[in-house]
Amino acid sequence: MKIYFPIHLDGGNRGCEAIAKGTAILLEKPKEELVGLCRNPKLDKRLGIDEFVSLWQYPLWLKVYNKFYCKFKSFIVKDRCRFIQICFKRHYKVFLNKMESGDILFSTGGDMMCYDNNEVVYTNDTVHEHGLKSVLWGCSIGKNNLTPEKIATLKRFSLIYARESLTATMLKEELGLNNVVTFPDPAFILEPEKVDLPDCFNKGNVIGLNISNYILGGFDFESPLGKDIVSFVETIIYSTDRHILLIPHVMWEGQDDRIVSRMLFDKYEHTNRVHLLDSTSLNYSQIRYVISKCLIFIGARTHAVISAYSTCVPSVALGYSIKSKGIAKDLAMSMDTVVDSKNYQQGAFMKSYDFVDRHLGELRKKMETIIPEYKENTYGIRKVLRELSCK
């Protein structure tokens, strides 16, 4: 029996790296039995993902053919939904056809179901038609994210592993699903990997700051939240002796954290109080080690915030979907530590930071009490998977 991961993508999003590695550890299977569709094997090998999962890439000629095929179809097929389905079929057909009787599809990606109808729906519906089992792995989804297509495919999954209780409750109460279990995100079990720290850690207390165009509403700081982040940086520089370390976590084209991080760094580099981590050269666990040394962490990317939580660093989560509130709730964190970036109210960012700053000792102590057992609970998914494989 092999497990296939069609939506691994690549470690350009360090969250995808974390999911792949954490999942492999939980599954306790040799990498030959774990097959991930990968669009950047060179990067994934540098990050060490290939030590956990067998990476499979389409031959170059097939990628080129698929690209031109979809371009050609775009002139003929005017129905957008049908066109997207055609492209998904071209992209995933060969990979999914590798699956044999007894193999299982794992649909990863965390909050992929929070967005438009996408490849999660297509890949699950396809393997369901072939009579194969599928697992929605470590997911988050809110009621407002549901569509008829998503509801139908959610009912087709053999198992849904929700990574926080808000998602699990919604799926059970709104859809009446009985194939849902709840365990922490698989990334929680990864250990930090020691690396040389940036020099700012020798100069004083460091606030880690991870920002993205998702929470800013674009690659600038013109939104209310963007303006509040700039104001926050200036407050730290001119009213405290703390340093800010900008920590990019996703480096994909179109959502590259390095772009907005570089903008802030360039603006305040002259103060010698704002610094930029070279995340490109670090893997997920190495970035986790850097985050673990911060006094406070503020993060837009869920798996960056998970690194802070797992190492008991008091944190502000800049959320844009149900996952942020759900994980914070399950860790008994006050909702004052979560900023709703999609329905942002002016001043909320500084309010959350001030709350965390005032309760540093209390928050750290609470996490030191909760986190060990919370991490250990993640391994409970093993029993569920054993039962699934026997059905």
TrEMBL record:
It comes from the Bacteria. Residues 13-321 form the Polysaccharide pyruvyl transferase domain. Pfam families: PS_pyruv_trans. InterPro entries: Polysacch_pyruvyl_Trfase (IPR007345). This is Polysaccharide pyruvyl transferase domain-containing protein. It comes from Bacteroides cellulosilyticus CL02T12C19.
